[in-house]
Amino acid sequence: MSHSHAHNHDHKDLKGRKLLITILLNTVITVAQVIGGLVSGSLSLLSDALHNFSDVLSLIVSYIASKLSKQKASINRTFGYKRAEILAAFVNAATLIIVAVILIKEAIERFQDPQNIESNLVIWLSLIAIAGNGYSVLLLKKDSDNNINIKSAYLHLLTDMLASVAVLIGGLLMKYFQLFWVDSLLTFLIAVYLIFVGYHLLKTSTKMLMLFTPEHIDIKAVVRVVNKLPKVNKLHHVHIWNLSDDELHLEAHLDLKEDISTSEFNDLLLEIENLLHDDFNINHVTIQPEFNKEDPKEVIVQD
Asked: Has residue 206 got a pLDDT over 90?
């Protein structure tokens, strides 16, 4: 049995600092919106505050997960906390959907009984929220492309910025046209959008937690590439999964055409590692070599 490691831990501290800044910004915004929502009577402003509060919680979860993921492996935790960020993304996605369901219920109840709202306060607080969340979104945009935990935090903040834009439009309509029912309509639309965004993230994080094969990986193509090597008879018992965003694992049995020496196998293993890394970005390979061993030779075997 042999394996190789290749990890990418760049910019971990910078990501942590960015998350900390967004936590502080969103805490201030949340407090301001709660007070403003209660004073003005605006449900959309309170719903935005509730969404912002869920942002604060999700950002704290993301921050803790980011810190945990840097901890070293130990005897009792051989992978360390590398999957903490995936778990954080799952929790954040679930909270997005829960918050959305609560908002839909409140919006329907308020729609049946529209109320006068202090629109000036709604307008000013939504502008503050747009500015704060907009800055937070810009902070996390780059890292969100390569890290599911940061992406979950980024999506929370992006949806909240869009929600604040909707609240601003609603405030302007209420101020100049007295369309107070718009408050409930906007709350409903914000909630529907939250469900749409949350579902996609929940599905992605669930697949990673369940160790499903990443969508961009074709296992049959992986097997075909390895099977073309001269000394290889067949790659089988294949498992491919994401341990974390930047760590893609392959575990498999390798049936050999001849009874080669250990040093020859090491050379073959290095060739396989380079091949899989270059073609599929698989950066952790564990291979069990076999010769004339009687076991199932299917590509996928249920143990």
From this structure: yes
